[in-house]
Amino acid sequence: MTKGITRERIVTAALELLDDQGMDALTVRTLASRLNVRPSALYWHVRNKQELLDEMATEVMRRVADALAAVLPGDGWRDDLAAYGRVLRSEYLLHRDGARIFSGTRITDPDVVRMKEPLFERWTASGWKPADADDAIDLVTAFAVGFVIEEQERRQAAGADPSRYSIDQRDAWLGEGAPLVKEAGHLHDDGDRRFERLLGMVLDGIGARLDT
């Protein structure tokens, strides 16, 4: 094992590499070069890129757990889930392609998974089933991941081509026969306002499901 190379140092360097060059440039070989070691030195800690992504996602979720502990509990399940969704988005946005590294990963720290226990305790005490609590967490997680992936991809694409999402060009491309689609396009917003509105719709759906 190469002296001074730890899993924590690897993850820190991987997140820095992600911020500098993005998800597509993130490889074990590139990371080893950044750390000035041979790739084989990293395989003591992460066997492949998927394990590297697992560790990166776990570190991000540790930060989510810490941030969430500072704002919970709320007044009920809706406040709790809203806070969880906001913290997820905030942490993902700290890193380029931050939501992409989370997709399909496996959390490697049981303490991170245990962060759900206080939430489940509160919700089941008010009548939820554990399966409903788990579904609610999964749904808000999926929404936040998908929203931020789209948010970050659009931001990067617009940076490379400012005209890519031009509403006027879209109107001309659509032509006649789609006045409502055009109107909706002009009202389309991004960022915090859109996230909060769509998160509210997700929570409304969870609430409606619970009522049945």
TrEMBL record:
Known SUPFAM superfamilies for this protein?
A: Homeodomain-like, Tetracyclin repressor-like, C-terminal domain
For this protein, the DNA-binding region equals 27-46
Q: Where is the HTH tetR-type domain?
A: 4-64
Instruction: Please give the superkingdom of this protein's source.
Output: Bacteria
The family database entries (Pfam families) matched by this protein are listed as: TetR_C_1 (PF02909), TetR_N (PF00440)
Q: Which residues lie in coiled coils? A: none
- Family matches, as PROSITE patterns: HTH_TETR_2
Name the UniProt key words of this record, in alphabetical order. DNA-binding, Repressor, Transcription, Transcription regulation
Task: Report the InterPro entries cross-referenced here.
Answer: Homeodomain-like_sf (IPR009057), HTH-type_TetR-like_transc_reg (IPR050109), HTH_TetR (IPR001647), Repressor_TetR_C (IPR004111), Tet_transcr_reg_TetR (IPR003012), Tet_transcr_reg_TetR-rel_C_sf (IPR036271)
PANTHER family noted in UniProt: HTH-TYPE TRANSCRIPTIONAL REGULATOR RUTR, TRANSCRIPTIONAL REGULATORY PROTEIN
* Protein name listed in UniProt: TetR/AcrR family transcriptional regulator C-terminal domain-containing protein
Organism ancestry: Bacteria, Bacillati, Actinomycetota, Actinomycetes, Kitasatosporales
